[in-house]
Amino acid sequence: MLVGNKCDLESKREVSFQEGKEFAEQNGMKFIETSAKTDQKFSEAFESFVDGIISSMEKELNKSNEENNNNKEDIEKKNKELTKKIEEYKELNNKTNEELKQKMILIENLLQKNRDLINENEQLNNNYNN
């Protein structure tokens, strides 16, 4: 916002109203002329200034909220991906555990057969020696 002051002192003016307005427009600003002495547009300038600050803060807040929403979506997506991987690992772990159980049963069966053969061999040796 570009504020021209002391507009009540027309005889001492160095910049015309039109020059000030054009400069403000070229630079994307509002333009207003005020006079604190005559209270000409002083309140309007202050209110416009405050409105501009509030508007700017609202834009920043909206931008921040949008970024947070995007971050939230990214986090939710990553959480879903991680949850899926965890489930895959659990399934693989369960499958591996089941395979290990089957192998343990096979080993136990082989050990039992080996014990049986040892016992049978000892009996045959005993019979042979007698």
Name a few traits of the molecule.
130 residues; mainly alpha; rod-shaped
Summarize the structure.
The protein has 130 residues and is mainly alpha-helical.
Task: Characterise this structure.
This protein is mainly alpha-helical and 130 residues long. 75% of the residues lie in helices and 5% in strands. The chain has two helices and two strands. The longest helix has 88 residues, at 42-129. It is rod-shaped.
Widest sheet, order of strands: 1-2
Shape summary: rod-shaped
What do the pLDDT scores average to? 84
Helix-strand category: mainly alpha
End-to-end distance: 120 Å
How are the elements arranged and paired?
Blueprint: E1 2-4, H1 17-26, E2 31-33, H2 42-129
Parallel strand pairs: 1-2
